[in-house]
């Protein structure tokens, strides 16, 4: 089966939305359940799911189901230039105050799910193979 060509314009469009950047920021080097995105971004689940679907179609994230929970993580795009841009974007997000605030809220949610009314939700898991080595 022939491999489809990477859609570079779609990749750039995916990065051109603040909500999608916030989602990528929260994923960083870990896998995160949709329920945490909903709480931290204070947005309706359908809106979050729509943005995650866009990121999936752009080849930036992958998903897996665990029971009723959907987990998302960042994937390395197959296009070398896009992979570099994604790494740089993630690195830049680490310095943004609003993005730092989101990550802080996620870390608090990880330690206290009941605080965000997420009882029973699985905790975010660190991804064993870091896709975009953007550690500070």
From TrEMBL:
<dbReference type="InterPro" id="IPR051081">
    <property type="entry name" value="HTH_MetalResp_TranReg"/>
</dbReference>
<keyword id="KW-0804">Transcription</keyword>
<dbReference type="GO" id="GO:0003700">
    <property type="term" value="F:DNA-binding transcription factor activity"/>
</dbReference>
<dbReference type="InterPro" id="IPR011991">
    <property type="entry name" value="ArsR-like_HTH"/>
</dbReference>
<keyword id="KW-0805">Transcription regulation</keyword>
<protein>
    <submittedName>
        <fullName>Transcriptional regulator, ArsR family</fullName>
    </submittedName>
</protein>
<dbReference type="GO" id="GO:0003677">
    <property type="term" value="F:DNA binding"/>
</dbReference>
<dbReference type="InterPro" id="IPR036388">
    <property type="entry name" value="WH-like_DNA-bd_sf"/>
</dbReference>
<keyword id="KW-0238">DNA-binding</keyword>
<dbReference type="InterPro" id="IPR001845">
    <property type="entry name" value="HTH_ArsR_DNA-bd_dom"/>
</dbReference>
<dbReference type="InterPro" id="IPR036390">
    <property type="entry name" value="WH_DNA-bd_sf"/>
</dbReference>
<dbReference type="Pfam" id="PF01022">
    <property type="entry name" value="HTH_5"/>
</dbReference>
<feature type="domain" description="HTH arsR-type">
    <location>
        <begin position="1"/>
        <end position="100"/>
    </location>
</feature>
């Amino acid at each position: 089966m022939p491999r489809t060509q990477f859609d570079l314009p779609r990749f750039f469009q995916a990065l051109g939305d603040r909500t999608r950047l916030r989602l990528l920021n929260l994923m960083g080097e870990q896998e995160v359940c949709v329920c945490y995105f909903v709480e931290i971004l204070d947005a309706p689940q359908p809106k979050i799911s729509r943005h995650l679907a866009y990121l999936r179609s752009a080849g930036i994230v992958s998903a897996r189901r665990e029971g009723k929970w959907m987990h998302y993580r960042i994937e390395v795009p197959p296009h070398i230039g896009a992979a570099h841009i994604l790494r740089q974007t993630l690195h830049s997000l680490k310095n943004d105050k609003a993005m730092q605030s989101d990550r802080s809220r996620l870390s608090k949610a990880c330690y206290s799910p009941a605080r965000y009314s997420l009882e029973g939700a699985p905790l975010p898991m660190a991804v064993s193979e870091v896709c975009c080595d953007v550690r500070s």
